[in-house]
Amino acid sequence: MKPATIAAQALGWIDETTRAVSPPIHPSSTFVRDADNQYRSGRSYARADNPTYDQAEAVLAALENGAAAALFASGMAAATAVFLSLKPGDHVLAPKAIYWLLRSWLLSFATDWGLKVEFVDMTDLIAIKAATRRGATKLIWTETPANPTWDITDLAAVAEIAHAAGARLAVDSTVATPVCTRPLDLGADIVMHSATKYLNGHSDLIGGALVTRVADAHWTRLKELRVQLGGVPGAFEAWLLLRGMRTLFPRVRTAAVSAQAIAEHFTGHALVDHVLYPGLASFAGHAVAARQMQGGFGGMLSIRVKGGERAAIATAAHVRIWKRATSIGGVESLIEHRASVEGPHSPCPKDLLRLSVGVEETSDLIGDLEAALKAAQG
Ligand SMILES: Cc1ncc(COP(=O)(O)O)c(C=O)c1O
Asked: What sign for the dihedral angle of Cα 319, 324, 327, 330?
Protein backbone atom coordinates (compact mmCIF):
# COMPACT_ATOMS: atom_id res chain seq x y z
CA MET A 1 0.00 0.00 0.00
CA LYS A 2 1.16 3.51 -0.87
CA PRO A 3 1.18 6.04 2.02
CA ALA A 4 -1.98 7.82 0.81
CA THR A 5 -3.84 4.49 0.93
CA ILE A 6 -2.45 3.66 4.38
CA ALA A 7 -3.70 7.03 5.65
CA ALA A 8 -7.15 6.85 4.00
CA GLN A 9 -7.84 3.39 5.42
CA ALA A 10 -5.91 3.89 8.67
CA LEU A 11 -3.98 0.73 7.75
CA GLY A 12 -7.25 -1.05 6.98
CA TRP A 13 -7.69 -2.25 10.56
CA ILE A 14 -11.17 -3.59 11.39
CA ASP A 15 -12.39 -3.86 15.00
CA GLU A 16 -12.34 -7.58 15.77
CA THR A 17 -15.30 -7.58 18.18
CA THR A 18 -17.79 -5.51 16.16
CA ARG A 19 -16.32 -5.53 12.60
CA ALA A 20 -16.48 -1.72 12.76
CA VAL A 21 -14.51 0.22 10.14
CA SER A 22 -14.20 3.21 12.45
CA PRO A 23 -12.54 2.07 15.68
CA PRO A 24 -14.05 2.36 19.17
CA ILE A 25 -12.78 4.87 21.74
CA HIS A 26 -11.49 3.35 24.97
CA PRO A 27 -11.95 5.90 27.75
CA SER A 28 -11.02 3.45 30.53
CA SER A 29 -8.16 4.64 32.73
CA THR A 30 -7.54 1.19 34.21
CA PHE A 31 -7.59 -2.50 33.20
CA VAL A 32 -8.40 -5.66 35.15
CA ARG A 33 -5.58 -7.81 36.51
CA ASP A 34 -5.81 -11.57 35.99
CA ALA A 35 -6.62 -13.75 39.05
CA ASP A 36 -3.08 -15.11 39.10
CA ASN A 37 -1.75 -11.52 39.44
CA GLN A 38 -0.66 -11.20 35.80
CA TYR A 39 -1.62 -8.58 33.22
CA ARG A 40 -1.89 -10.85 30.17
CA SER A 41 -3.71 -8.13 28.18
CA GLY A 42 -0.47 -6.16 28.37
CA ARG A 43 -2.35 -3.15 29.82
CA SER A 44 -2.66 -1.96 33.39
CA TYR A 45 -3.17 1.82 33.37
CA ALA A 46 -4.01 4.20 30.53
CA ARG A 47 -1.17 6.70 31.09
CA ALA A 48 1.07 4.03 29.59
CA ASP A 49 -1.21 1.66 27.71
CA ASN A 50 -4.17 3.45 26.16
CA PRO A 51 -5.66 1.15 23.47
CA THR A 52 -7.02 4.16 21.55
CA TYR A 53 -3.41 5.17 20.78
CA ASP A 54 -2.54 1.88 19.03
CA GLN A 55 -3.98 2.47 15.59
CA ALA A 56 -3.00 6.16 15.39
CA GLU A 57 0.58 5.28 16.39
CA ALA A 58 0.74 2.40 13.91
CA VAL A 59 -0.55 4.60 11.07
CA LEU A 60 1.92 7.38 11.85
CA ALA A 61 4.86 4.95 12.12
CA ALA A 62 3.88 3.51 8.72
CA LEU A 63 3.53 6.94 7.11
CA GLU A 64 6.99 8.00 8.37
CA ASN A 65 8.52 4.59 7.60
CA GLY A 66 9.56 4.32 11.25
CA ALA A 67 9.83 1.41 13.67
CA ALA A 68 7.39 2.91 16.19
CA ALA A 69 5.49 6.08 17.12
CA ALA A 70 4.30 7.57 20.40
CA LEU A 71 1.51 10.11 20.90
CA PHE A 72 1.97 12.99 23.31
CA ALA A 73 -0.37 15.60 24.80
CA SER A 74 1.00 18.34 22.50
CA GLY A 75 3.79 19.07 20.08
CA MET A 76 5.65 20.80 22.92
CA ALA A 77 5.30 17.71 25.15
CA ALA A 78 6.80 15.59 22.34
CA ALA A 79 9.63 18.02 21.56
CA THR A 80 10.66 18.68 25.16
CA ALA A 81 10.70 14.91 25.87
CA VAL A 82 13.47 14.53 23.28
CA PHE A 83 15.63 17.13 25.07
CA LEU A 84 14.76 15.79 28.53
CA SER A 85 15.93 12.34 27.44
CA LEU A 86 19.47 13.78 27.38
CA LYS A 87 21.65 14.45 30.45
CA PRO A 88 22.65 17.76 32.01
CA GLY A 89 25.95 18.85 30.40
CA ASP A 90 25.09 17.39 26.99
CA HIS A 91 25.64 19.73 24.05
CA VAL A 92 22.82 20.20 21.53
CA LEU A 93 22.48 22.19 18.33
CA ALA A 94 19.17 23.84 17.50
CA PRO A 95 18.18 26.03 14.56
CA LYS A 96 18.03 29.81 14.67
CA ALA A 97 14.75 29.51 12.71
CA ILE A 98 12.62 27.40 15.06
CA TYR A 99 9.11 27.30 16.52
CA TRP A 100 9.31 30.25 18.90
CA LEU A 101 8.06 28.55 22.09
CA LEU A 102 10.61 25.76 21.79
CA ARG A 103 13.36 28.39 21.40
CA SER A 104 12.05 30.11 24.50
CA TRP A 105 12.03 26.81 26.47
CA LEU A 106 15.55 25.92 25.30
CA LEU A 107 16.82 29.34 26.39
CA SER A 108 15.15 29.08 29.80
CA PHE A 109 14.29 25.74 31.40
CA ALA A 110 16.53 23.50 29.27
CA THR A 111 19.55 25.77 29.81
CA ASP A 112 18.83 26.15 33.57
CA TRP A 113 18.56 22.36 33.79
CA GLY A 114 22.05 21.98 32.30
CA LEU A 115 21.78 21.40 28.57
CA LYS A 116 24.39 23.31 26.54
CA VAL A 117 22.20 24.69 23.78
CA GLU A 118 23.79 26.33 20.75
CA PHE A 119 21.71 27.93 17.98
CA VAL A 120 23.03 27.63 14.44
CA ASP A 121 21.90 28.49 10.94
CA MET A 122 20.64 25.08 9.78
CA THR A 123 20.94 26.14 6.12
CA ASP A 124 24.73 26.46 6.56
CA LEU A 125 26.36 23.00 6.54
CA ILE A 126 29.84 24.42 7.28
CA ALA A 127 28.54 26.26 10.35
CA ILE A 128 26.71 23.15 11.59
CA LYS A 129 29.81 20.98 11.21
CA ALA A 130 31.99 23.59 12.92
CA ALA A 131 29.57 23.78 15.87
CA THR A 132 29.46 20.02 16.56
CA ARG A 133 31.73 18.75 19.34
CA ARG A 134 32.64 15.08 18.94
CA GLY A 135 31.52 13.13 21.96
CA ALA A 136 29.80 16.11 23.61
CA THR A 137 27.13 16.91 21.01
CA LYS A 138 24.35 14.42 21.62
CA LEU A 139 21.56 15.89 19.53
CA ILE A 140 21.05 18.03 16.46
CA TRP A 141 17.48 19.32 16.42
CA THR A 142 16.12 20.90 13.30
CA GLU A 143 12.84 22.06 11.83
CA THR A 144 12.22 22.04 8.08
CA PRO A 145 10.58 24.03 6.56
CA ALA A 146 11.17 26.25 9.61
CA ASN A 147 8.46 28.42 11.00
CA PRO A 148 7.92 31.26 9.90
CA THR A 149 10.61 31.92 7.24
CA TRP A 150 10.52 28.32 5.90
CA ASP A 151 14.32 27.83 5.92
CA ILE A 152 15.15 24.40 4.53
CA THR A 153 17.56 22.02 6.26
CA ASP A 154 19.37 19.53 4.02
CA LEU A 155 18.39 16.51 6.13
CA ALA A 156 20.63 13.92 4.44
CA ALA A 157 23.70 16.15 4.85
CA VAL A 158 22.90 17.10 8.47
CA ALA A 159 22.23 13.45 9.38
CA GLU A 160 25.74 12.63 8.16
CA ILE A 161 27.23 15.46 10.23
CA ALA A 162 25.27 14.38 13.31
CA HIS A 163 26.25 10.73 13.04
CA ALA A 164 29.93 11.55 12.42
CA ALA A 165 29.87 13.50 15.70
CA GLY A 166 28.11 10.66 17.56
CA ALA A 167 24.85 12.64 17.81
CA ARG A 168 21.23 11.90 16.87
CA LEU A 169 19.27 13.99 14.39
CA ALA A 170 15.71 14.88 15.41
CA VAL A 171 13.43 16.73 12.99
CA ASP A 172 10.32 18.78 13.62
CA SER A 173 8.45 17.80 10.46
CA THR A 174 5.16 19.43 11.43
CA VAL A 175 5.09 21.65 8.33
CA ALA A 176 6.41 19.11 5.81
CA THR A 177 4.21 16.24 7.03
CA PRO A 178 4.91 12.71 5.72
CA VAL A 179 3.11 13.78 2.52
CA CYS A 180 6.04 16.01 1.51
CA THR A 181 9.11 14.59 3.32
CA ARG A 182 10.07 11.42 5.17
CA PRO A 183 13.02 12.49 7.34
CA LEU A 184 13.79 8.95 8.57
CA ASP A 185 14.41 7.85 4.98
CA LEU A 186 16.97 10.65 4.72
CA GLY A 187 18.90 9.49 7.79
CA ALA A 188 17.13 11.26 10.68
CA ASP A 189 16.70 9.28 13.91
CA ILE A 190 13.56 10.86 15.35
CA VAL A 191 10.68 12.75 13.74
CA MET A 192 8.49 15.03 15.79
CA HIS A 193 5.05 16.41 14.90
CA SER A 194 2.71 18.89 16.41
CA ALA A 195 -0.28 16.68 15.61
CA THR A 196 -2.39 19.75 16.38
CA LYS A 197 -1.56 20.89 12.84
CA TYR A 198 -1.72 18.96 9.55
CA LEU A 199 -1.90 15.44 10.96
CA ASN A 200 -5.24 16.22 12.54
CA GLY A 201 -6.05 19.10 10.21
CA HIS A 202 -9.30 20.39 11.71
CA SER A 203 -8.15 22.78 14.45
CA ASP A 204 -10.00 20.77 17.07
CA LEU A 205 -7.32 19.07 19.15
CA ILE A 206 -3.91 19.65 20.76
CA GLY A 207 -1.56 16.71 20.27
CA GLY A 208 1.98 15.67 19.48
CA ALA A 209 3.93 12.67 18.31
CA LEU A 210 7.41 11.20 18.00
CA VAL A 211 8.42 8.54 15.48
CA THR A 212 11.68 6.61 15.68
CA ARG A 213 13.75 4.99 12.96
CA VAL A 214 14.81 2.17 15.30
CA ALA A 215 13.18 0.90 18.48
CA ASP A 216 16.41 1.07 20.48
CA ALA A 217 17.28 1.79 24.12
CA HIS A 218 16.88 5.53 23.53
CA TRP A 219 13.33 4.94 22.27
CA THR A 220 12.57 2.91 25.41
CA ARG A 221 13.88 5.84 27.47
CA LEU A 222 11.62 8.27 25.55
CA LYS A 223 8.59 6.03 26.11
CA GLU A 224 9.41 5.79 29.84
CA LEU A 225 9.78 9.54 30.02
CA ARG A 226 6.36 9.96 28.42
CA VAL A 227 4.78 7.85 31.12
CA GLN A 228 6.73 9.54 33.92
CA LEU A 229 6.04 13.10 32.77
CA GLY A 230 2.46 12.12 31.99
CA GLY A 231 2.24 14.26 28.87
CA VAL A 232 -0.23 11.95 27.14
CA PRO A 233 -3.37 12.76 25.12
CA GLY A 234 -6.87 11.70 26.14
CA ALA A 235 -8.58 8.85 24.31
CA PHE A 236 -10.91 11.21 22.44
CA GLU A 237 -7.96 13.27 21.12
CA ALA A 238 -6.19 10.11 19.93
CA TRP A 239 -9.37 9.00 18.16
CA LEU A 240 -9.88 12.41 16.52
CA LEU A 241 -6.27 12.36 15.35
CA LEU A 242 -6.75 8.97 13.70
CA ARG A 243 -9.84 10.29 11.95
CA GLY A 244 -8.01 13.43 10.83
CA MET A 245 -5.07 11.48 9.39
CA ARG A 246 -7.40 9.65 6.99
CA THR A 247 -7.65 12.84 4.89
CA LEU A 248 -4.03 13.96 5.39
CA PHE A 249 -2.97 13.43 1.78
CA PRO A 250 -5.83 15.20 -0.05
CA ARG A 251 -5.73 18.08 2.47
CA VAL A 252 -1.97 18.66 2.22
CA ARG A 253 -1.88 18.20 -1.55
CA THR A 254 -4.71 20.70 -2.07
CA ALA A 255 -3.09 23.21 0.30
CA ALA A 256 0.29 22.86 -1.45
CA VAL A 257 -1.16 23.50 -4.92
CA SER A 258 -3.01 26.54 -3.58
CA ALA A 259 0.05 27.84 -1.65
CA GLN A 260 2.16 27.62 -4.81
CA ALA A 261 -0.44 29.63 -6.78
CA ILE A 262 -0.71 32.24 -4.00
CA ALA A 263 3.10 32.50 -3.73
CA GLU A 264 3.43 33.00 -7.48
CA HIS A 265 0.57 35.52 -7.58
CA PHE A 266 2.10 37.79 -4.91
CA THR A 267 5.70 37.52 -6.16
CA GLY A 268 6.56 40.92 -7.67
CA HIS A 269 3.23 42.40 -6.41
CA ALA A 270 3.27 46.19 -5.99
CA LEU A 271 2.34 45.97 -2.26
CA VAL A 272 4.53 42.97 -1.33
CA ASP A 273 8.28 43.16 -0.81
CA HIS A 274 9.02 39.48 -0.71
CA VAL A 275 7.29 36.08 -0.75
CA LEU A 276 8.84 33.24 1.24
CA TYR A 277 7.81 29.80 -0.07
CA PRO A 278 10.05 26.77 -0.74
CA GLY A 279 8.23 26.09 -4.03
CA LEU A 280 9.44 29.34 -5.60
CA ALA A 281 12.54 28.91 -7.76
CA SER A 282 13.78 32.24 -6.31
CA PHE A 283 13.63 30.90 -2.70
CA ALA A 284 17.07 30.30 -1.14
CA GLY A 285 16.33 26.70 -0.11
CA HIS A 286 14.44 25.75 -3.26
CA ALA A 287 17.02 23.33 -4.71
CA VAL A 288 17.28 21.33 -1.46
CA ALA A 289 13.50 21.47 -0.99
CA ALA A 290 12.95 20.16 -4.53
CA ARG A 291 15.16 17.18 -3.62
CA GLN A 292 13.70 16.30 -0.22
CA MET A 293 10.07 17.51 -0.52
CA GLN A 294 9.05 15.13 -3.24
CA GLY A 295 5.38 15.18 -2.27
CA GLY A 296 5.09 18.98 -2.68
CA PHE A 297 6.28 22.14 -0.96
CA GLY A 298 3.56 22.28 1.67
CA GLY A 299 0.82 24.70 2.59
CA MET A 300 2.79 27.35 4.50
CA LEU A 301 4.16 30.62 3.15
CA SER A 302 4.90 34.12 4.38
CA ILE A 303 4.71 37.52 2.73
CA ARG A 304 6.70 40.61 3.71
CA VAL A 305 4.44 43.59 3.23
CA LYS A 306 5.65 46.91 1.81
CA GLY A 307 5.16 49.61 4.42
CA GLY A 308 6.60 47.53 7.29
CA GLU A 309 4.94 46.45 10.54
CA ARG A 310 2.07 48.95 10.35
CA ALA A 311 1.04 47.83 6.86
CA ALA A 312 1.38 44.13 7.78
CA ILE A 313 -0.87 44.46 10.85
CA ALA A 314 -3.34 46.60 8.86
CA THR A 315 -3.46 43.97 6.09
CA ALA A 316 -4.30 41.24 8.61
CA ALA A 317 -6.99 43.55 10.02
CA HIS A 318 -8.76 43.77 6.64
CA VAL A 319 -9.08 40.10 5.61
CA ARG A 320 -12.58 38.61 5.49
CA ILE A 321 -12.01 35.02 4.36
CA TRP A 322 -8.58 34.32 5.92
CA LYS A 323 -8.98 33.99 9.69
CA ARG A 324 -6.77 36.16 11.92
CA ALA A 325 -5.59 33.40 14.26
CA THR A 326 -2.50 31.57 15.42
CA SER A 327 -1.73 27.92 14.50
CA ILE A 328 -1.30 26.24 11.15
CA GLY A 329 -2.38 23.21 9.16
CA GLY A 330 -6.17 23.36 9.42
CA VAL A 331 -8.68 23.20 6.56
CA GLU A 332 -9.42 26.91 7.07
CA SER A 333 -6.76 29.43 5.99
CA LEU A 334 -5.14 31.49 8.76
CA ILE A 335 -3.13 34.72 8.69
CA GLU A 336 -0.90 36.00 11.48
CA HIS A 337 1.54 38.82 12.18
CA ARG A 338 4.22 36.59 13.73
CA ALA A 339 6.48 39.22 15.29
CA SER A 340 3.57 40.17 17.60
CA VAL A 341 3.63 36.59 18.95
CA GLU A 342 7.25 35.54 19.01
CA GLY A 343 8.86 37.85 21.59
CA PRO A 344 12.22 39.59 21.81
CA HIS A 345 14.55 36.69 20.82
CA SER A 346 12.75 36.11 17.54
CA PRO A 347 14.54 36.83 14.28
CA CYS A 348 11.10 37.15 12.60
CA PRO A 349 10.92 40.28 10.41
CA LYS A 350 8.33 42.81 11.63
CA ASP A 351 6.74 43.16 8.18
CA LEU A 352 6.03 39.41 7.91
CA LEU A 353 2.58 37.86 7.70
CA ARG A 354 2.44 34.08 8.03
CA LEU A 355 -0.14 32.35 5.84
CA SER A 356 -1.45 28.85 6.56
CA VAL A 357 -3.28 27.84 3.41
CA GLY A 358 -6.34 25.66 3.86
CA VAL A 359 -8.51 23.90 1.31
CA GLU A 360 -10.76 26.75 0.21
CA GLU A 361 -10.99 27.94 -3.43
CA THR A 362 -7.62 29.50 -4.30
CA SER A 363 -9.18 32.47 -6.11
CA ASP A 364 -11.16 33.39 -2.96
CA LEU A 365 -7.94 33.43 -0.92
CA ILE A 366 -6.04 35.49 -3.49
CA GLY A 367 -8.91 37.95 -3.94
CA ASP A 368 -9.33 38.43 -0.18
CA LEU A 369 -5.61 39.07 0.38
CA GLU A 370 -5.46 41.45 -2.61
CA ALA A 371 -8.36 43.46 -1.16
CA ALA A 372 -6.80 43.51 2.33
CA LEU A 373 -3.41 44.69 1.01
CA LYS A 374 -5.16 47.54 -0.84
CA ALA A 375 -7.39 48.46 2.11
CA ALA A 376 -4.32 48.60 4.37
CA GLN A 377 -2.93 51.46 2.25
CA GLY A 378 -5.88 53.72 3.11
C1 LIG B 1 6.49 23.82 13.80
C2 LIG B 1 5.84 23.65 15.15
N3 LIG B 1 6.39 22.82 16.04
C4 LIG B 1 5.86 22.63 17.27
C5 LIG B 1 4.73 23.31 17.67
C6 LIG B 1 4.16 23.08 19.05
O7 LIG B 1 3.05 22.25 18.97
P8 LIG B 1 1.83 22.26 20.01
O9 LIG B 1 1.15 23.61 19.87
O10 LIG B 1 0.98 21.12 19.57
O11 LIG B 1 2.42 22.09 21.37
C12 LIG B 1 4.11 24.18 16.78
C13 LIG B 1 2.90 24.92 17.19
O14 LIG B 1 2.54 25.93 16.60
C15 LIG B 1 4.68 24.37 15.48
O16 LIG B 1 4.13 25.19 14.58
From this structure: negative
The SS3 of residue 251 is helix
User: Cα separation of 329 and 244, whole Å?
Assistant: 11
Residue 293: CB atoms within 10 A of its CB come to 24
Atom of ligand 1 nearest to the CA of 76: 11
From CA 244, how far away is CA 156, in angstroms rounded?
29
Name all residues whose Cβ lies below 6 A of ligand 1: 74-76, 99, 143, 147, 172, 174-175, 194, 196, 206, 208, 327-328
197 is catalytic: yes
Per-residue model confidence as pLDDT tens digits over 100-133:
999 999 999 999 999 999 999 999 999 999 999 9
Residue nearest to atom 12 of ligand 1 (CA): 194
Q: In angstroms, what is the span from residue 194 Cα to ligand 1's centroid?
A: 5
116 is known as an active-site residue? no
Rounded distance between C-alpha atoms, residue 213 and residue 68, angstroms: 7
Catalytic residue among 151, 154, 172, 351: 172
- Tell me how far the alpha carbon of residue 76 lies from the centroid of ligand 1, in angstroms: 6
Sheet of strand 68-72: strand arrangement: 68-72, 208-212, 190-194, 168-172, 137-143, 91-95, 116-120
| Cβ 128 vs Cβ 158: under 8 Å | yes
Q: Per-residue pLDDT tens for 198-250?
A: 999 999 999 999 999 999 999 999 999 999 999 999 999 999 999 999 999 99
Query: Which pTM value belongs to this model?
Result: 0.98
Would the pLDDT of 65 be above 80?
yes
Q: Quick one: pLDDT at residue 45?
A: 96
Is 138 a catalytic site residue? no
From the number of C-beta atoms within 10 Å of its C-beta (0-12, 13-18, 19+), residue 327 rates as middle
In this structure, how many other beta carbons lie within 10 angstroms of the beta carbon of residue 135?
Answer: 10
Angle at 359 between CA 66 and CA 293, to 5 degrees: 40
Distance 269 CA to ligand 1 centre (A): 30
